Amino acid sequence: MSEKNLSQAEKNQTVEEYLNIERNSGKKSEYSNGKVLATNNSNRTHNLIVSNVTIAVGSRLSGNKAEIYVSNMRVQINASRFSYPSVIVVSGEPSFIDNKSDVLLNPTVVVEIYSKDTSFHDKTEKLESYLAMNSIREYLLVKEDEMRVEHYTKQNAKQWIYRIYNDRDEVVSIDALNCKVSMTEIYAQIKFGQAEINSKTAA
């Protein structure tokens, strides 16, 4: 999720204040240790990747008890951090903070799309926070301005397998969902330089 890291509320807010403002204003902001972080409008490439991932993964979830949420589902990462991942999949029954069902507690797979402007934040403390969640089994960082997917797969609470995919012929295996998604599907209709990536069906 793109963020303006310098655009923060003038004073710290409690979690209760943050959620109350979010729910009543209709605006979407992330929250970290009392600071409210405004989100940017996403561009064409970001939206295409979100759509591509959602279609590719969603089409392979048939028969599985799983739900997929896109961009607008708030996740409580820990007691003092809330975020809006680009794509979320919950395997099994979703759990929410209350009966409003707008703050998810147990994502299984999280996909974040990042750019050069958000790379530092998305790949440091935000990444560490996601990897510390008990429910998350796989975490994917998809680069917006280059063909590159960084894939974290949980082995146990202290060990993750890290893979990089950066070739159009590669296939990302999301074992938690028992599905495979090709790089050409993720980056379908997106041009890097002169080359256009066309959609292919994963083998």
3D architecture notes:
The protein is of the alpha+beta class and 203 residues long. The protein has a single domain (42-196), classed as tt1808, chain A. It has 5 helices and 16 strands. It has helices spanning 15-25, 44-58, 119-122, 125-131, 183-186, and strands at residues 3-8, 29-32, 35-39, 66-70, 74-78, 81-83, 87-91, 103-104, 109-114, 138-143, 149-156, 159-165, 171-174, 179-182, 191-192, 195-196.
Under CATH at level 1, the class stands as: Alpha Beta
What would the CATH topology be? Answer: tt1808, chain A
CATH-defined architecture? Alpha-Beta Complex
Total of DSSP H or I helical runs spanning 4+ residues: 5
Largest beta-sheet characterization: 6 strands, mixed
Give me the count of strands: 16
Low-confidence stretches: 1-9, 199-203
Q: How would you name the CATH homologous superfamily? A: tt1808, chain A
Give the mean pLDDT: 88
If you compute it from the alpha carbons, what radius of gyration comes out, rounded to the nearest whole angstrom?
Answer: 17 Å
Order of strands, widest sheet? 1-3-2-6-5-8
Q: How much strand?
A: 35-45%
Order of helices and strands: EHEEHEEEEEEHHEEEEEHEE
Topology:
Elements: E1 3-8, H1 15-25, E2 29-32, E3 35-39, H2 44-58, E4 66-70, E5 74-78, E6 81-83, E7 87-91, E8 103-104, E9 109-114, H3 119-122, H4 125-131, E10 138-143, E11 149-156, E12 159-165, E13 171-174, E14 179-182, H5 183-186, E15 191-192, E16 195-196
Parallel strand pairs: 5-8, 9-10
Antiparallel strand pairs: 1-3, 2-3, 2-6, 4-7, 5-6, 7-9, 10-11, 11-12, 13-14, 15-16
